[in-house]
Design a protein that fits this description.
Layout lengths: L5 E6 L6 H14 L6 E6 L5 H7 L6 E4 L16 H6 L4 E4 L2 H5 L5 H13 L3 E6 L3 H5 L3 H12 L11 E5 L13 H18 L2 H6 L2 E3 L8 H5 L6 E4 L6 H8 L3
Parallel strand pairs: 1-2, 1-8, 2-3, 3-4, 4-5, 5-6, 6-7
Helix pairs in contact: 1-11, 5-7, 7-8
């Protein structure tokens, strides 16, 4: 059986100024107990990536941008290039978050360009996928997820998958207080792992980390992390307070 190191990721979204972010980062670092079976990642807003990365230097916490462009430079107002992400001290980027898809209309094709651009720039990529409530109620969840995964990874070979993390985030459970049951989450994660095995091969499926994101809280993290195919979490609201995110990081 392959052992996958857990990844506990906090997405700050559009919160925190520089002072607040550096304070939160330091408080989160103080919560980490030096485990060797898990990693911690923080994704601050673009404006404070450099400050937070500097505050976390030597703390063993990964910093990530919340998006990344596929070009190195050019006329792309409002975007951030892979080399800019790295220059700010980050080594990872989130791509395809449900808010980018749902609010800003990013297509599977655009997200795929971001994935490949981030990989070419040497970043670890967290590729987010997830179905809406309407899609789940219409029994289309697995169809939607398969399309998002296949199109998001189009042109990515098996060797590059060591730099890819998949995050399953049911859109209906983000910021709503609703959470997929541990059984629902495990069912989807097992499906996604099987799909990776069909797209690539079994060893890629066995080693790729698949995170769960959707109203993760200290109260439900233990049961989620006990599932065999859940390899970590992508946390929103509960990552904005050091004590709650610390409890999530230190799951049993």
């Amino acid at each position: 059986m392959t052992t996958r190191k857990a990844l506990m990721a906090g997405n700050w979204k559009m919160h925190m100024n520089a002072v607040e972010g550096c304070r939160l980062a330091a408080d989160v670092a103080a919560q980490c107990r030096g485990y060797d079976d898990r990693e911690v990642l923080l994704a601050p807003p673009f404006t404070i990536l450099s400050e937070v990365s500097h505050a976390l230097e030597g703390k063993g916490i990964i910093t990530a941008s919340q998006n990344v462009c596929w070009e190195e430079k050019g006329a792309f107002t409002g975007e951030i290039a892979p080399n800019m992400v790295k220059d700010a001290g980050c080594s990872a980027a989130i791509v395809g978050h449900s808010e980018r898809r749902q609010i800003f209309g990013e297509s599977n094709g655009m997200i795929n360009k971001r994935v490949k651009g981030g990989l070419a720039g040497g970043l670890l990529i967290i590729l987010c996928i997830g179905e809406t409530l309407e899609e789940r109620e219409a029994d289309r969840a697995f169809t939607v997820l398969e399309e998002q995964l296949r199109k998001g990874l189009d042109g990515v070979d098996g060797g590059q998958m060591e730099k890819i993390v998949i995050a399953y985030e049911p859109v209906w459970a983000i910021g709503t207080g609703k959470t997929a049951s541990k059984e629902q989450a495990q069912e989807v994660h097992a499906f996604l792992r099987g799909l990776l095995g069909r797209i690539y091969e079994k060893d890629v499926a066995d080693t790729t980390r698949i995170l769960y994101g959707g109203s993760v809280k200290p109260a439900n993290v233990n049961e989620l992390m006990a599932q065999p195919d859940i390899d970590g979490v992508l946390v929103g609201g509960a990552a904005l307070k050091a004590d709650s995110f610390g409890s999530i990081i230190n799951f049993q």
